[in-house]
Amino acid sequence: MNKFKLSSWLGSTEHEVVNRINKRLDLATNLETETAEELQVQNYGIGGHYEPHYDCSRRESVFEKTKNGNRIATILIYMTKPEIGGGTVFIDLKTSISCTKNAALFWYNLMRSGAVDIRSYHAACPVLTGTKWTANKWFHERGQEWRRPCGLNQLDQERYVGDLGAPEPRRHLNIRSERPKKMNRKR
After folding, report:
1. Would you state the CATH architecture of domain 2-176?
2. HEC string of the chain?
3. Which ranges of the chain have pLDDT less than 50?
4. Count of Cβ atoms closer than 10 Å to residue 22 Cβ
5. How many CB atoms lie under 10 A from the CB of residue 27?
6. In the chain, where the domains are located
7. Can you give the pLDDT at residue 61?
8. Bias regions of kind Basic and acidic residues — which residues (predicted)?
9. What's the rounded Cα separation, in Å, for the pair 162 and 43?
């Protein structure tokens, strides 16, 4: 699944900074962090990547295996920007997001009905030059009952700023669905 990637898990009790990050993620996403997984910090060296995958389980029996249910959403924080490469791609959306230092990328893995959102199928592109540091947090179903109620319709979706399913994704500078045109022109 991955190559040349190192990772570590940081609990909120390990350091006050991690606790403050969790509080900010709670405010930014409006999702409960108490039932989320610990913050995972990752380092990708040259060639470091992650194959296409879903962050959530595609099995119906996920509540039997975990006490907090499936991974409802993901937030990925880019702590550094590699010189070349290292972006995140959403395969079915044909969308690439470049690393931007100190930026965060948020998406739902499940529809409101609990079904897997197939648009969340993604990968981390190889780092070609430099290094990439990220942190991510996976939010689980349990604890979100009042913050993100289930939907009656299988197709009920979220609408939020930066929604990859929203019209005109090119309005967002860090989201593009085609190769970028040269930005700097000689005058």
Report:
1. Sandwich (2.60)
2. CEEEEEEEEECCCCCHHHHHHHHHHHHHHCCCCCCCCCEEEEEEEEEEEEEEECCCCCCCCHHHHCCCCCEEEEEEEECCCCCEECCEEECCCCEEECCCCCEEEEEECECCCCCECHHHCEEECCEEECCEEEEEEEEECCCCCCCCCCCCCCCCCCCCCCCCCCCCHHHCCCEECCCCCCCCCCC
3. 159-187
4. 19
5. 10
6. 2-176
7. 62
8. 168-181
9. 25
Q: Exposed, middle or buried by CB within 10 Å (0-12, 13-18, 19+), for 123?
A: middle
Residues 6 or more apart in contact with residue 161 via CB below 8 angstroms: none
Q: Give CA separation, 75 vs 64, 83, 104, 128, 166, in Å.
A: 25, 22, 7, 23, 18
Terminal alpha carbon distance of the chain: 46
Residues 6+ apart with CB under 8 A from 152: 113
Question: What pLDDT is attached to residue 5?
Answer: 75
Structure tokens at 120: 């969340």
